[in-house]
Every structure is written in C-alpha cells, then in structure tokens.
UniProtKB/TrEMBL annotation:
One of its GO terms (molecular function) is transmembrane transporter activity. Residues 148-639 form the Major facilitator superfamily (MFS) profile domain. It comes from Trichophyton rubrum (strain ATCC MYA-4607 / CBS 118892). GO terms for cellular component: plasma membrane. PANTHER family: MAJOR FACILITATOR SUPERFAMILY, MAJOR FACILITATOR SUPERFAMILY (MFS) PROFILE DOMAIN-CONTAINING PROTEIN-RELATED. SUPFAM superfamilies: MFS general substrate transporter. This is Major facilitator superfamily (MFS) profile domain-containing protein.
Amino acid sequence: MASARKIFLITTVLDPVDLAMTSSLVSRLDGMEQQSTWACSVLFLFLLRVGWMSEPAVSLPRWHSYQMLDIYIYTYINMYIIHLLLRSLAFSDNYIPPLIKADINLASMSTAVEAGGQNGPQQSGVSSSASSHTEIEEFRPSKRTWLIFLTLSVLTLMVALDGTSISVALPIIASKLHGSAIEAFWSGTSFLLCSTVFQPSFASFSNIFGRKPMTLIALTFFFVGTLVSGLSNNFTQMLVGRSIQGVGGGGIIALTEIVVTDLIPMRERGKYFGILSSMWSLGSVLGPVLGGGFSQNVSWRWIFYINFPFVGISLIFIILFFKLTRIPDSLATKLRRIDYIGSALFIASAVSFLIPVTWGGVMYDWSSWRTLVPLILGIAGLIGFMFYETYFAADPMIPVTVFATRTAVVSYIETVLHGLVLWCGLYYLPLYFETVKEYSPILSGVALFPLSFTVAPSAVVVGVITTLTGKYRWSIWMGFFLSTLGMGLLAILKVDSSVPAWIFLMLPAGVGLGMLFPGLGFAIQASALKGHMSMAVAMFSFFRAFGQAIGVAIGGVIFQNRMVAKLRKYPEFSAPGLAEKLSKDAAVLVQVVRGMPEGPQKMHLKEAFTGSLRFVWIVCCVLLAVGGLLSVFTASYDLNQGIDSEQTLVEKKDRNATVETGVTPSQKA
C-alpha cells in the first residue's frame, strides 16, 4: 500500500500537467459556454483526483484492489475527457487561436488535406500542389547533396554509438575510476539529459546563425566532451565530459534531421530519413557490443577514442560540402534575435523536470522532497515558458504555432509514447537476457537483434512506399497495431522461454516501432505551417528524446513496485526491507542474480524479475494502444510540397548566394 501511495502522490503532482494541457485544448474551443463547461470538467477531474488521495484504503480481492480500481477509474475519466476534447477539435484542424492568427499569412496555405473526402485544413507549402508535383518528378539529388547526406549519416552513427556503448561498460569504468554506483549512474544519464534539452535551442539558433555554423559548434562540443571523457581520471571529469558530449550530441541529432528538410522535397524524404534511422539503429546495436568488447579486452577509454575518426571525417566534409544559402544579417542583428529569456527558461525547466524523473526511485524515493521539489519547479517552469513564448517573446525560440494544428498536437503526443516504449524495450530487454538468461553484455546485445535490426528495414520500406504513394497515415495505423501486438507478446516471456520463442516474440514490436519513425515524421512535417519546418522537425526529435528520457524512469517505477510485491511472496525474501533493497534498481539486480549459486532462491528471484518485466510490457502495450486511438485524428496532407526553407543548397556557381538571392528549388531543377 505504501508503494501505491507513492505512485499516487507522483500522479497527483503531475496532474497540473493534465490540467494545463487540457486547459490549452479547452481554450481552442469556440464559445464561452463550451469553455466554461470544459473548464469545470477539468477542475472537477483535478479535485476528484486530489480528494481520492485522502480516501482510506478499502479491502478488495487481489486483482481488484484499491490501487488498481483507482488507476482504472482515473485513467478512464482522463481518457474520456481527452477523447471528448479531441473530438471537439476533430473538425477544426485549421483552427488557430486569435492571438496567433494575426502572425500567420493564411493565404500562403495552399495544400488541401485529403481527409474523408471532405475539404480539410489548408497547408502551407512553398508552391502549389501542381507545381510541387512537377518539382518532385524532376528532383534529382546532386553529388553535393549526396555528400552532405553521407556526412549526416556518419554523424548519426557516431552519436548513436556513443550514446549506447557506455551503458554496458559502466561497471568496469566505475571499478577503474574507483567510483560509486551513483557516479556511474550519472555518467550514463548526463549525456541523455543534455542531448534532450539542448535540441530546440540548436534548432532555433540555426535559424538565426545558419545550419553550417551551428553544426560545427555542435561537433566541437561533442569533440571536446569526447576528449575530456576519454582522458578522465575520476568521475567528476567523466561527468563534465559526458555533459559536454550530450550538448553536442543533441545539436547533431536535431540538425541532421533539419538539414535533410533543407535539401530534399517532402515526398522524397522518407527514404532519406529511413537511412538515418538505419544508421541510428546500427549504432544502437553495435554500441553495446563495442562498449563491452573494448572495456573487457582493450580499454574502456577506446569507447571514446573511437569517435575521433568520425569527428575528423565529418569536420572535413562539413567544411567542404555544407554550402547552404547564408543569412545576410549582421552579427549584432542575429544576437538581438536570440530569445535569451525563453532559452534559459526552457533549459532550466526541462533539466529541473528530467533530473528528478531520472533519479526517482534510484537515488531518492519518489515521495522525497529531493524528487518532488525540482519536479514541481520544472513543471511550473515549462508552463511559464509556454506563457512567455505565447505573449511576450518577440522572436520565440519555440513558436506556439508549431502546435497550431490538431495533427501536430496528436503526432507529438504519439512521438512521446513511441520514444518511451522504444527506450523501455531497448533498456529492459537486455536486462532480461543478462539476468534471467545470464548472457554476457555482448551476447545480450546480440540477442536484441530481432528487435533492433527490424526497426531500420521497416523504416526504410515505409519511407520508400510513402514516396511512391504519397500516403503516410497507413504506416502510423499499422505501426501502432504491430507494436501494440508486439509488446503484448513480450508479456509471454518466461524464465525458460526458448531461443526461437523470444526471437519471434520480438519481431512484431521491432517492425511496428520502425514503421512509426517515418510515419510520425511525415505527419508532423506535412502539417507544419509555412516557415515552421525546421522547428517542427526539431520538436519531433525533442519529443522522441523526451519520451526516451522518461521511458526508463516510468519502467523503473513499475518494475520496482511489482518486484517488491512478488518478492514478498517468497519466505526467503520476506525479511524487512530486503525486497525493497533488491528492487531498487533493475540494473544492479543483474549482478546480484548472476552472483548467486543455483537453487530455489535464485529461481524465485528470476521468476519475480520476469513477472515484474511482464507488467512493464503490459503498460507499454496500453500506451501504444492509446497512441493508436489518437492516430485516428491524424489528417492526411498532400506530400507534394517543395522545400520550405530559407537555407537551401547552393551549388558551386551560386556559392555567394544569401537568403535573399539564394537559388529556389525550382531554379535548381
């Protein structure tokens, strides 16, 4: 009951987010009567949740306990109200709040939505459908385009390798540097936190200073962080290096996807983003294998040294081939355009939110003030950030119009769910293999191939099919169906599951999750208003990383609570505090199980571990099902759109082109 109370306390703290998000939707409804009605409903929901917290526990059968009853009813009420709100917006995808409407040239929105045979929202394209279609037919990537894309692929592979290779080597690094488990935890977490929160800033600065300068700055951050990490003699130096690496890695992640939209017309982008997804998938698979191999057989420092060839090759290619139209403003003008207050608010608030989400249940209890205070401050800061960006920022870092359409809002929510579930799978499946099957870290990475190696091919196939057909909604629907089915199948995993069994059980999830990468990307890009493409792509990348950051934390909360309940059933783990200690961290539990002698105690621990993970897979299955239901509200936009960017490719003869005199896509064709 105490564990359940902790979860309820966290959900109560997080309810202001529900309140803020739902109130934002309410504000878009027409008519004072509708707004008043829905506002009262939202307020009633919030008060109901707080009041429910104070109710005494009731004694119910095991599978209908107070905790489950509360979760079921509360989730149902939440989903029902969100469903009604979204349904109210279902026929107004082109609705823009009055404060924003004046800032948008609605006459430039020329692409019609093909939804249910009805006239859909108008979409901003750089040209009409007919002229854009001609451009798509005539588009031929130049040699410079391919060289730039090759550079982007190398950068993507480098960041993916670095982000995933250190996890399996942390125990060895901790031993060599004489660090604690907490220090090892932060050296792995700092990269993900920094790479997540700095992505929108790099996207915003690239609109001001240009893609090439910001890509070079991001690469410099990554190189310096790599050098500091590789030469570290203690965990303080390691933490500094990994944080600097994360800043650069976040900039690289955001800018690689943005540059693709600068070079390639929308309908053609699927196969290019599919290739980038393949590079990311390849890096995510090879990272743990290389990390384990270097740390066990050579030196853990080579995990970082291996990045230097990638940095050198990328630097040369960026200098030689990144020729995009230059922004002619003076440095003083560019500096005045920076949204200093918005950037500071966003970074501080996002860090304040993600840090307690990351350490909750690992370093401190979820009910500890060290977890709750920064969490509340982070939520309040993010709400304040959106308020400032909407009403006060002259040149906002994240324009609120990025969320102006129904399709964009729904797709961003689905992107968070996609990233959350994907990272849960990539994090907890290796733990299953290392703990239950007792595979080595390298072999556990190989065992993950049925999931990780199906993500990339399915993303590429979807990209190619979408380019040929011009349709993308089918991939979102099919992706959520297969990934929901796949996560449900993972709940079948047992201690004694055979190799063929777990191979085939992982395949549907890998295919489905892979299909969602290009599908959601197309939905967000196609629904973006004119001039918002770069930030729309950056927010797609940010929300995916945000989902990944909270995915492990949410999985950890579920795992801990289920593990405690299951261990208490066995007499050998019934001693006070023993079950809680063993359930503290799933990664630490790996070493505990592997160090135990064979016998009933070890088998019981494996059964409890597998059963706890089963509940994680069930929750992931439910979240994906929610994403599938939300996908019904995704509109179908015309993909025959040109390049919506001021920073297009400049060939040799146009080397001195600026934004005003730069070559347009039609001229290049």
